[in-house]
Amino acid sequence: MLLLITSKISEEDLKKAAEELGGYIKYVVDIKKEITTAGGSRHVQGEELLLHNGSTQEDLWGGGLDLETGEVDFDSMINIRPNQNNPSREVLSPETRKKIEEIVRRLLK
């Protein structure tokens, strides 16, 4: 189940978002609007949902949240952006990673 999250997620919706991947949630964060998607099997699904809702590509970053450990990762194919100095699946900018993690922890924890 893919959800668009604009305010703190309910416990019920968090569980629904985590069902598909067994306790792991893929997210795509819009760092400008400070919203995220949660769930789905591929980051591109969240990316498409956010783009459809007015987000811009340069503001979108993907990763995952392990509900068991609480670990946030920053790994997604949608993060490969040579034109934004990010030629890796991992988000390389410490500032961007910090912003992503703040949004994920506020909305998904």
Automatic annotation (TrEMBL):
Q: Which domain of life is it from?
A: Bacteria
The record, for Pfam families, names: DUF5674
Listed name of the protein: Uncharacterized protein
Source species, please? Candidatus Sungbacteria bacterium RIFCSPHIGHO2_02_FULL_51_29
Instruction: Give the lineage.
Output: Bacteria, Candidatus Sungiibacteriota
